Each structure stands twice: as C-alpha cells, then as structure tokens.
C-alpha cells in the first residue's frame, strides 16, 4: 500500500482530531511536538505515529511505554482502525481508511503467466499460498515473494525459499530491482514483468526524482527523515544505526560533500564508533535494511542509497544543490 494513500486520523477524546501526514505525528511533552501532552510523566518525545506500506504504526520513543488497547507497547506496533492509544492524561482513537486505487489513472506493472496477466495495483503486492496473499499460488507457503512500487520503480523481495530474476538468484530479504521484460521464476512458476499504462522499464532516477531537500530530526532510538522531491514530501522513521547511516551520508564526515561516495572506513567511524573492524557484510546488511525502510515509505531506496561499483563506498543520491537541514 502506498503510504501517501493511507488516511489516518488521531481523534483526541473530548477534543479535535489530528491527521497523520507524511511526516507522521509526534506525541510528547515538548512544545514542538504535533500533539503536546501536559502530564509531567509523559516523555518529551513519547511516541511517533507514522504511515507505513501496510497502514500505520506507533513507535514508542520515551522511557515509559504507550498503551495500545490497554496493553503497554515498548516496540513499534502496527495499528488498526478502532485502536486506542493511551498515555497519562491523553487518549487517542485511531481511525484508518485506505481508498481503493484508481486503476484507470494509475500507471503500473503486471505479471504475465501463460497468457494471463495479473495487475500490480498496490504495494506491497504479495505472492504466496496464503488466503490473504494478493496472488495466490496453490501449494505455495504464505508470503513467499512481495513486489513493491516506489517512485514508478518496481522491486522484488524474496521472503523464503529460492527464486531467480532472468536466471540469476535472488537473495532472501534483499530488494531486487525489476524492469519490464524481466522473468521471475520461483517454485516451478514463471512470470514476466509487463508494463501497464505509462509504466516503462526501470532506469536510474533523473535529477527531478531525487531529493532537493532532506530534513533530519533526531529522536530517541533513531530519528525522522523527510525527503522533499518536487512538490511531494516522503517521511520515514529510521531506528538506531539506520538513522545514523542516513545522517552520515547526508552530512558526510572527512571533508566529503553530500551526494559524494563515503568510504566504508568513514562510515564505520560514525555508525560503529566502537567497532572499527565491522565487516563489509554487516555494512551491506545495514544498507539493505535501510533501503527497505525507504521503499516502504514510497521512496526508491536502492537508487537513493547507492553503493559504489565493487563496494567500498556509499552515497545518498541527491538533486543538484540539495539542501540538508538538521532539526533540533
């Protein structure tokens, strides 16, 4: 599901409502929060409600948990329509609606198999044998493969087992870019990616598809990053080292400029200051997880966080003259 299409509102009991926008809604005692709680036991930045590829979730940020339907939550938790959030002195009712996609006006992709075509009208588009999967293949386990749309690009994510793209194996839990005409093979089934409407083969993003402004806000246990691309803002909450990675790429150390490749050694010093010998495999794993977070926010993560050919360096792809803003 495209996060921009999800409509989420927090209804304050006995008060007004607050819509959850692309930047999310920050709840806490600090005066610059989106919803300010007056109880002194509430943390300055207590929780963040943000849109996701599946709807919305609450991310606890404070030392004390936030209650979801009466149960304390200390880790990110998916929200459903009708859920109730409680913190001292404040109760919020969650209202979530997901409009049906406008298939007539939306360009996209389809999977073709043996003369039949299956449109990919939303993201994520899950393929497996589960009753709730989007494309159900008999005798497959649930949720084997998912397809993700971001910035007119299509990506595949293998969750279990083995699959190939044009004969090359896909890695489990690693996003793989797909282009029109690519062949996907998995568990004895074969699909070909086709264009629908104005969709075209995936290519490197142009400067108009890259962030012209990146606003970074530090939060407990991570931070919030807002990417401005044209007139659209896409926000993502990144936990811990994933946030540290994006900050290091947006404001690179060692005399590098934003948009330039930053060496692995320079990243190690910032992201793993106490582990200077962290392996390249661990760096690649962190980059992969960060890319997935960006794709879930509707951003083409594998294009925005780019590895140098052969590895050894990483950059954040930016529009020329992009502005980097660090919020207090």
Which residues sit in consecutive blocks of at least 5 with pLDDT less than 50? none
Q: CATH homologous superfamily name of the largest domain?
A: Winged helix-like DNA-binding domain superfamily/Winged helix DNA-binding domain
Residues in β-strands, percent:
35-45%
Structural class: mainly beta
What is the total domain count? Answer: 3
Any idea what the CATH architecture of the largest domain is? Orthogonal Bundle
As a percent range, the share of helical residues equals 10-25%
Query: Judging from the principal axes of the Cα atoms, what is the shape?
Result: globular
Distance between the termini: 31 Å
CATH topology-level fold name of the largest domain: Arc Repressor Mutant, subunit A
Mean pLDDT, to the nearest integer, reads 89
Reported for the largest beta sheet, the result is: 6 strands, antiparallel
| Number of DSSP-assigned strands | 29
């Amino acid at each position: 599901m495209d996060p921009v299409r999800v409509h989420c509102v927090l209804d304050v009991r006995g008060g007004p409502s607050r819509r959850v926008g692309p930047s999310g809604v920050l709840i806490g005692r600090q005066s610059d929060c989106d919803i300010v709680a007056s109880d002194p036991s509430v943390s300055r930045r207590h929780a963040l409600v943000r849109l996701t590829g599946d709807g919305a979730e609450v991310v606890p940020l404070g030392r004390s948990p936030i209650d979801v339907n009466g149960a304390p939550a200390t880790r990110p938790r998916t929200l459903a329509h009708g859920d109730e959030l409680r913190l001292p002195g404040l109760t919020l009712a969650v209202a979530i609606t997901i409009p049906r996609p406008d298939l007539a006006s939306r360009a996209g992709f389809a999977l073709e198999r043996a003369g039949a075509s299956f449109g990919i009208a939303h993201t994520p588009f899950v393929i497996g044998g589960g009753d709730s999967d989007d494309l159900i293949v008999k005798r497959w386990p649930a949720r084997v493969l998912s397809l993700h749309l971001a910035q007119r690009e299509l990506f595949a994510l293998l969750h279990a087992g083995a699959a190939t793209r044009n004969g090359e194996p896909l890695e489990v839990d690693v996003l793989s870019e797909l282009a029109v005409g690519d062949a996907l093979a998995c568990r004895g089934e074969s699909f070909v990616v086709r264009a629908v409407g104005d969709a075209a083969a995936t290519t490197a993003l142009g400067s108009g598809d890259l962030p012209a402004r990146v606003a970074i806000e530090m939060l407990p246990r991570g931070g919030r990053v807002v990417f401005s691309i044209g007139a659209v803002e896409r926000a993502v909450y990144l936990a811990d080292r994933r946030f540290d990675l994006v900050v290091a790429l947006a404001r690179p150390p060692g005399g590098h400029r934003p948009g330039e490749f930053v060496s692995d050694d320079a990243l190690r010093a910032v992201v793993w200051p106490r582990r200077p010998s962290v392996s390249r495999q661990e760096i690649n794993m962190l980059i992969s997880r960060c890319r997935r977070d960006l794709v879930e926010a509707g951003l083409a993560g594998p294009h925005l966080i780019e590895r140098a050919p052969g590895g050894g360096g990483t950059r954040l792809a930016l529009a020329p003259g992009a502005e980097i803003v660090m919020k207090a």
